[in-house]
Amino acid sequence: MEHHFDQELKALKDRLLTMASHAETAVNRAVDALVNRNLELALQVRVDDEVLDQFEIEIDELAINLLSKAPLASDLRLVTMAMKLSQNLERVGDEAAKIAKRARDLSKEPPLKLNLEIPRMSSLALGLLKSSLDAFVNRDSVAARALIPRDKEINAMHKQIQSQLIAHMKESPDNIARSLNLLVAVKSLERIADHAKNIAEEVVFLYDAEDIRHAEK
Amino acid sequence: MNSPALSSRHFRATKFDFGSFFFTGLTGLATLCILGILAVILFNIVAAGLPAISWRFISTIPKKDFFEPATTGVLPMILGTSIRVIVMTLFVIPIGVITAIYLTEYAPNLSPVTRVIRAAVNNLAGVPSIVFGLFGVGFFINFIGQGMDRALGHESVVWGQPALLWASLTLAVMTLPVVIVATEESLKAIPMGLREGSLALGATKLQTILRVVLPQALPGIMTGGILAISRAAGEVAPILLTGVAYYMADLPTKLSDQFMDLGYHVFVLSTQSPDIEKTRPITFATVLVLLVLTFALNFVAIIIRARVRKKLRALG
Amino acid sequence: MSDTVLQKIEMPSGEPASGKATPAATPFIEVEKLNLHYGAAHALKDISLGMKERVVTAFIGPSGCGKSTLLRCLNRMNDLIDGVRIGGSMRIGGHDIYAKDVDVIELRKRVGMVFQKSNPFPKSIYDNVAYGLRIQGMKSGGELDAAVEQSLQSAALWDEVKDRLHTSALGLSGGQQQRLCIARAIAVKPEIILMDEPASALDPIATSRIEDLILELKKDFTIVIVTHNMQQAARISDDTAFFYLGELIEFASTKKIFTNPTNKRTEDYVTGRFG
């Protein structure tokens, strides 16, 4: 017979997995809305974010309840990491909502005629998020470790797009509004990639009991 | 799944429980029987003996006029019985306690030596009283007593004959199992934890026994003593050959003296009297004195034991 | 006091007990390939571990795993049981305590013990604490009074009993009795205190006081504690040893055992999956 405690742990993990899937969907929709100027998708993302907020509350509640039962060893790591993961995923939802808002604003005006690497950066960020969540699902701490350096590439791309947009704003003051919207959206993409990296670090702690945060500073 | 609701029938007695009633009745009946028998015996003795009790009776040293209710007395018998019981106690308690301590605390449980000692103690308890008397003659009087006389260079026989000391020792041997068993039981009742606590502090086994175990076992040991006293006070057969005398003109003053005894005197009064009817009151009176003496000795011991118990339970 | 092999234990100078599982610290208690048989039963199998000085080491494991048996080897209380055979070695401060010339009585003055079921003597509180000292010959007087007071202070019991030192120890509550037993044990100033589930019969508040006491005591004494309560071991011990069926499965710092044990059986036991 399964302990009650094990059932509760399983419920926690299931909620977390579901939340991860939702977060991935939300970011997918947000990026799609941005790149393909899809207003309808943009509106859906706001709902997605609210769902993710509720998930965070629910998961934290489950986790605190489990903590009161003094879990140890791998159970302890699961419960504490669940709280951190849910927070990361909630923030990912927030960033997706921000992107969607900017996408909505941008879709009301004609697109900027700039050759920005936004689609590629979006794709990389999405890929990083997906990889980190897959590592969590598949208990693959090796894969999690491997994807941490990928964040650097996304940061570099972010910087580049940023300077491009800043230069453009100086040249064409008429386009400042649209440029700013893009700046914010791209910043959110970079934040999503950061969160994906955090998720990977938490996965490593969860499965290897090793704290690899803040290693290269 | 719903459980049936509690109704008043769960609380009312539904049918008469014959079994409980039967056994309660049986045990009550048994108690009444025992009390009844005791009451009848005591009543008989008191009714028949009380008229003959007087201060003169218990304080007079009789001349050979045992059978005269008007002039006889039982002072020497009271003294004789008391002294032999007390001397017996002085011997049996130390020896019994030490043996019990050895058996409980020191002897390896399953060794053949231990089993032999235990068997000996148990068998000793079943030996008939008169056999102890014969043992007392053969061992104490003939072997030790005469040996002492030779060693001390006595011209005439001092120790090699019936004496207070030998009678007391014979009784001690007889009541030894009682003391040993009572002491063992009280030692076993002391939890191992107490001994372990003492040993864990670096005490030796002996220190543990003397400072922790024995003080706790004291009430139990005293119970053994009380049982021994009760048994020995009324015993006649063991002292028959080892020290009691039909008639002594003076009170006993030394352990090598012979003595008179209440129990033996009852025997004398019942069998040697020329006029049984006339002697009956003093026979019963002697029995009554013996009973009172036994109760008194027990009572003193019980009081002491109660105080020891009280002291153990709550100090100051 | 007589000269015995087991002298006052010399401590390598200047070495504070760090509480971390550093291999460099010389173990104060060293068990090497210890085997114990109760008649035919093999209760302890090839136990080897080293415990540091002035540190709390916890023994955990399911019932019957041998942790209490090993504890009782440390002060040779197992000698009291018929048919016990011990092989291997157990060294305290470098001295083999099972050597032929060891005086067990002296050993037990150096290695004290507190039992699961508190066992105060049916004497006064004062006489309980003074017992160990009186056995060693200390006479009643100022020195004894001071020693009794100090022990009761160290056991966090003085304030509660100072006005009734000469009343029976049996009148104290369960938690107080256990603290009295601790005071009694530390009165003889041992180097090591062994505790066999000292709080298992106590309510949570009494337990918490005993745990605080242990954390204070470890400044002056080396403590080895057997416990069923995982959270207790996590709260108060520095190192933890996990036993199962007579074997030592894992021995590491408490933090490691309770957040990330190496051995799967340890993990399963600690998370309550078995035992």
Commentary on this structure:
- The complex is a heterotrimer of chains A (217), B (316) and C (275).
- Chain A is an all-alpha fold and 217 residues long.
- Chain A has helices at 4-36, 39-67, 73-107, 118-137, 141-147, 150-171, 176-208.
- In chain A, helix 1 (4-36) runs antiparallel to helix 2.
- Chain A is elongated, with a radius of gyration of 19 Å.
- The relative contact order of chain A is 0.14.
- Chain B has 316 residues and is mainly α.
- Helices cover 71% and strands 0% of the residues of chain B.
- Chain B has eleven helices and no strands.
- Chain B has helices at residues 18-49, 55-59, 75-106, 112-125, 129-152, 164-188, 192-200, 205-234, 237-240, 262-272, 276-313.
- Chain B is flat.
- The mean pLDDT of chain B is 88.
- Chain C has 275 residues and is α/β, with parallel strands linked by helices.
- Mean pLDDT of chain C is 89; it is low at 1-24.
- The chains are: A mainly alpha (217), B mainly alpha (316), C alpha/beta (275).
- Chains in contact: A-C, B-C.
- At the A-C interface, helix 3 of A face helix 8 of C.
Quick take:
The complex is a heterotrimer of chains A (217), B (316) and C (275). Chain B is mostly helical. Chain B has a single domain (62-313), classed as MetI-like fold, CATH 1.10.3720.
Write the layout of secondary structure elements.
The complex is a heterotrimer of chains A (217), B (316) and C (275).
Chain A: H1 4-36, H2 39-67, H3 73-107, H4 118-137, H5 141-147, H6 150-171, H7 176-208
Helix pairs in contact in A: 1-2, 1-3, 1-4, 2-3, 3-7, 4-5, 4-6, 4-7, 5-7, 6-7
Chain B: H1 18-49, H2 55-59, H3 75-106, H4 112-125, H5 129-152, H6 164-188, H7 192-200, H8 205-234, H9 237-240, H10 262-272, H11 276-313
Chain C: E1 29-38, E2 41-51, E3 56-60, H1 67-74, E4 84-92, E5 95-96, H2 104-110, E6 111-114, H3 125-135, H4 142-154, H5 158-161, H6 174-187, E7 192-196, H7 204-217, E8 222-226, H8 230-236, E9 239-244, E10 247-253, H9 254-259, H10 264-270
Parallel strand pairs in C: 3-8, 3-9, 6-7, 7-8
Antiparallel strand pairs in C: 1-2, 1-4, 4-5, 9-10
Helix pairs in contact in C: 3-4, 3-6, 4-6, 6-7
